[in-house]
Amino acid sequence: MNKTVLFLTSLLGLAACTAAKENTSSVSSSTKVVTHNTIVDCVLYDGMTKESAQLLSVGPGAQVQVTDTVDVYFVKARVIKDGKTISGFMYRTCFPQR
Questions:
Q1: Which of 46, 96, 91 is closest to 69 using CA atoms?
Q2: Around Cβ 50, how many Cβ atoms within 10 Å?
Q3: Could you give the strand order of the β-sheet that contains 74-81, starting from the edge strand earlier in sequence?
Q4: Whose CA, among 2, 16, 28, 36, lies 20 to 30 Å from 80?
């Protein structure tokens, strides 16, 4: 009898954990574009590696539209310069902490 109760309790606990996991996995990320001003000289890269080409140099105070927070070090960004929109990646350290 004790083994049956223990088994059923374990199954119930497993089902509860599985249901909770399904509820938290549907978290949607924000797709809002946020405009930031740079605080230092930064570079807009075409990728997130050391070998990535530099697309544009951005000076302090320039407006940059952050479209996605890619990882711990980079954000996906776009800059409008001379009427031309350029998209790439920038270091997070280019922007003030919010």
A1: 91
A2: 6
A3: 34-37, 63-68, 74-81, 84-91, 42-45, 54-58
A4: 28
pTM over 0.70: no
Q: What are 11-48's pLDDT values in tens digits?
A: 666 566 554 444 443 344 456 788 888 888 999 999 99
76/53 Cα distance (integer angstroms): 15
First to last CA, the chain: 57
In angstroms, rounded to a whole number, what is the distance separating the alpha carbons of residues 78 and 51?
20
CB atoms within 10 A of CB 12: 10
Please state, in angstroms and rounded to a whole number, the distance separating the CA atoms of residues 51 and 55: 12
